[in-house]
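Exam review. A common question shows you a sequence with its structure tokens and asks you to describe the fold in words. Practice with the pair below. Do the first one on your own.
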Amino acid sequence: MSDSASRQRAVFVSGASSGLGQAIAQLGLERGYSVWGTARARGRLERLAENDHFHPMVMDLNDRSQMLNAFCAAEDESGGFDVVVNNAGFGVFGDLCAISEEDWDEQITAMLANLMALIRDQTRALLRRDESATLVNVSSLAVEFPLPYMSGYNVAKAGLSALSESLLLELKETNIRVIDFRPGDFRTQFNAGMIPPPSESQGGDAHCADRLAAWKTLEKNLQAAPKAVAAAEALWHAVDRGRQGTIRTGDWFQARVAPVLNRLVPQGIARAVRWRYFGLR
């Protein structure tokens, strides 16, 4: 029996300490994979590390050299990944003009420039292995339904989707399937790391009411959203069926209505519907 036939299948999941990443990693373990999952601190992976087939990794998207070296070591240790899931990311809430240059640069660098470098190395590794594999880039329905006051997040996710579309073309004659996975709202701690807007206008800020309305809608949607495991199940269903291309998942409005609006109605009308959805004037 060949080494590839006898070894346990392996999956790489970035951002596995919570939310979608943790749910994707957990379901991978339940499907019989060995899972290499990342977080900025190893201690945040203790829950998954209770499983003997989980391999905790420290990876920081802000540190390109550390990130690439960590993936290279994991790829060597695993013997090659059958599924690679790029999930890690974060949001910054606020007006573009009010967000600090440091916060903007960190988000765009980590979630787009550095992530592209990681995906390049992952793709090279999968091509060298020359076996059937799936590369998953977790973008967002924000690509089609941009989130208000989250410009950096929208830009990074749109860029990631564009990269996935490029790879679908470049890899079409290989054994690598590419999935642009676009989840909507799911019940996670996504908002926990973001600073909410003040409840009252400061210094005559005319946009305070809109920002507050948008924040409240984001919070309400997360609280009412399906659990993260539902998104993980949708992703693994797509992987198991050998699907590729754009995979959307979320509630009926986000995953069904919003994409149709973008395709079939004038942009002005679609934009008005989006703004109303978030309670904006």
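Now try the second one, then compare your answer with the model answer below.
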Amino acid sequence: MKLFHSINHLEIINVFKAEQWLFYTAIVLFSLCVGSFLNVVIYRLPLMLEREWRQQCHDFLEIEAPRGDEQPRIGLATPASSCPHCGHSIRAWENIPLISYLILGGKCSSCKAHISMQYPAIEAITATLSVIVAWQFGVSVQTAGGLLFTWILISLTMIDVHKQLLPDNITLPLLWLGLIFALFDTYASLQASVIGAIAGYLSLWTVFQTFKLVTGKEGMGFGDFKLLAAMGAWMGWTMLPQIILVSSVIGAIAGSIMLVTGKTRTQQPIPFGPYLAVAGWIALLWGNDINQAYLVTLQ
């Protein structure tokens, strides 16, 4: 049975290598479905965590939850998706990535309330970035890992944008995945990966502690430390300077634009996770080329 499965896997890989159009078609279709699931993660995971933390507070303080505070259980798989305005259960044909949104005209089929553009946007972005990863690495283990890395970063980015939160439920598995891939020298050696995880965490932790000592304020969240540690685990310590530099530049530009356009205020905190995510994604795909180009300019 194992031999049969291995033969099937090899045949699929050979077909993908011979028929590139089929490979990219499969990537697009599968990543669209993943994008639809990421929308669920982005919306529900923070709610699940908030309810869990509230319950932990009640348990720790040994107090009962206020009457009427009980809420139905919610998970990533249950209950079935429904319209937040009227509670209409989303039927299968209304849940086809991108296509359903276009068919419905961006409105609920029951109450005609507008559906957020975030849903089709995340699906389209997930598919686009997935194709870029597949184009860069081809039919390989690097593509499989790169797709996981990309999908996780998309969910972290959107959660941080909405909630200024980088959940341990996502950042820590991302770190462990990086170490697992390093066992096989997929993106970095195991030694570089372990050092990268340590250096990634300690670098931002040091900045955090220094800023807090000088100003008495917290300049960033602990989730940022863990996200950079995860990137160090995936790509090794040599990529960390590039990731920090690129994310800082992107953050400075984006922050300046938001201040000028009035999208944010001077004292309002801005999540750093999205900028780390963009820089880390760029580094995974083109980091070595960027480093090589930089070294050439120094010669």
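Model answer, second protein: The radius of gyration is 22 Å. Residues 1-7 have pLDDT under 50 and may be disordered. Full marks require stating both points clearly.
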